[in-house]
Write a structure and sequence with these properties.
- The complex is a heterodimer of chains A (219) and B (186).
- The N and C termini of chain A lie far apart (56 Å).
- Chain A has 9 helices and no strands.
- Chain A folds into 2 domains: 100 residues, Rna Polymerase Sigma Factor, Chain: A (Orthogonal Bundle); 90 residues, Orthogonal Bundle (Arc Repressor Mutant, subunit A), CATH 1.10.10.
- In chain A, helix 6 packs across helix 8 and helix 7 crosses helix 8.
- The longest helix of chain B has 21 residues.
- Among the domains of chain B are: 57 residues; 61 residues, no CATH class.
- Chain B has 6 helices and no strands.
- Chain B is mainly alpha-helical and 186 residues long.
- Classes of the chains: A mainly alpha (219), B mainly alpha (186).
- At the A-B interface, helix 2, helix 3, helix 4, helix 5 and helix 8 of A face helix 1, helix 3, helix 4 and helix 5 of B.
Chain lengths: 219, 186
């Protein structure tokens, strides 16, 4: 693979010294811009982008698909898509959202494949069709435990509570809270109405706040 | 699927619960800025006067904060391993646009003509290799790497029509606006 730096035509005559870009010193924004130079990102620059954003990809995939064992393969595919398409990203400042969206689309592609291949008796199947499985949990007033639980324990509880949500509620709240998507965008991705998105988000929150209230009410 | 108990049975009747559901949904949408002006005024009135709504609001704010600060899960493999795999994969799958390369303009005209010749041959062979029913870029994986010798540069268009949904590749969004990209500064 060529390691030469693409040079703009206007500056060719000036014999610009071809010092390699020190990717690790670039800001996130400049790093994305650097990945857009030329038709394909340079390896060193793109690898640095991966180092900075891999944890975000892991996080999105982990919460969307907590019980999938092959998330590493999915993450790899996310980056291949990013590599191929980053030169065409129009608003580099929105890279993080764009990356989330690629991971999310890939998750849904894969989910559809798995559902097609799963038996009709699969326990997962009805969950995506109905919203009725999740009860409302509103303003329960049971006292929390006395012990002061550590932050780590709280995040463990939160992760478990998210993973325990029925699939449609989990994906919807993850798109909202972890990926920061607007309702309209969630509706578009999940193929449901805005009203359904609103209801799913509220019900997911209702369940989570009830399960975690001893942590949320503290201090 | 774990089934949660009905918490409202502690202190709420059915009709009250219905009201609570509506309020909760509105409060939740309010938190996301997804309410009309009228709804916003309504929620703000509850927030001013209703202790239950105040308590829920406080909890939901903390829940949101927790979501935003939730640590990334332990990586399933070191990022350097992922980097190696991604590049091995990219190099194994010579996507047509990689073949296009960035150095087209460095070649002199005779080289360009030669490249077109090689390109034409590869169009022929690639077309045979592609299944018409699966024009996914992934299909390139099965293509034997074509000996380019740096001459493939004239291939300026994909051999197979790529699906044009939001973008040139399935699953890759057009550059849509996102909220909270300010979180980028991490």
């Amino acid at each position: 693979m060529s390691q030469s730096l693409p040079v703009s035509w206007s500056s060719v005559e000036v014999a610009v010294p071809q010092t390699p870009v020190q990717a690790e010193k670039l800001s996130n924004y400049d790093l994305v811009l650097q990945c857009q130079v030329g038709h394909r990102p340079e390896k060193a620059v793109f690898a640095e982008l991966m180092r900075r954003y891999q944890s975000h990809v892991d996080k999105v995939l982990y919460h969307l698909a907590p019980d999938w064992q092959d998330r590493a393969d999915l993450a790899q595919e996310v980056w291949i898509r990013v590599y191929r398409n980053i030169p065409r990203l129009n608003e580099p400042v929105k890279f993080r959202g764009w990356l989330s969206r690629i991971a999310t689309n890939l998750f849904y592609d894969e989910l559809r494949k798995r559902k097609r291949n799963s038996s009709p008796l699969s326990l997962d199947a009805p969950l995506s069709l109905e919203d009725g499985e999740l009860d409302w949990e509103i303003a329960a007033e049971t006292p929390g435990p006395d012990e002061d639980l550590s932050t780590r324990e709280f995040y463990d509880q939160l992760n478990d509570a998210i993973a325990d949500l029925p699939e449609v509620f989990r994906t919807t709240i993850v798109l909202r809270e972890i990926e920061g998507m607007a309702y309209e965008e969630i509706a578009e991705i999940t193929g449901v109405s805005l009203g359904t998105v609103k209801s799913r988000i509220a019900r997911a929150r209702s369940r989570l706040q009830a399960q975690l209230q001893q942590y949320l009410d503290g201090k | 699927m774990s089934s949660q108990g009905h918490s409202e049975s502690n202190s709420h009747g059915d009709s009250l619960h219905e009201t609570s559901k509506d309020r909760f949904e509105l409060l939740s949408a309010y938190l996301d800025g997804e309410v009309t002006a009228t709804e916003r005024r309504q929620v703000e009135e509850w927030l001013a006067n209703d202790p239950t709504v105040q308590q829920l609001h406080a909890r939901l704010l903390k829940l949101r904060q927790a979501f935003r600060s939730i640590p990334a899960p332990a990586p399933s493999q070191p990022v350097e391993a992922t980097i190696d795999q991604v590049f091995a994969n990219i190099e194994r799958r010579p996507s047509l646009s990689v073949v296009r390369g960035g150095n087209t303009r460095r070649f002199a005209l005779p080289m360009g003509i030669a490249a077109m010749f090689v390109g034409a041959i590869s169009v022929f062979s690639l077309n045979r290799l592609y299944s018409p029913s699966a024009p996914q870029p992934v299909a390139v994986q099965q293509v034997e790497p074509v000996e380019t010798g740096g001459l493939m540069v004239a291939l300026d268009q994909p051999v197979v029509a790529m699906p044009q949904a939001d973008s040139s590749e399935p699953g890759v969004p057009a550059n849509k606006p996102f909220e909270r990209d300010d979180r980028d500064a991490q």
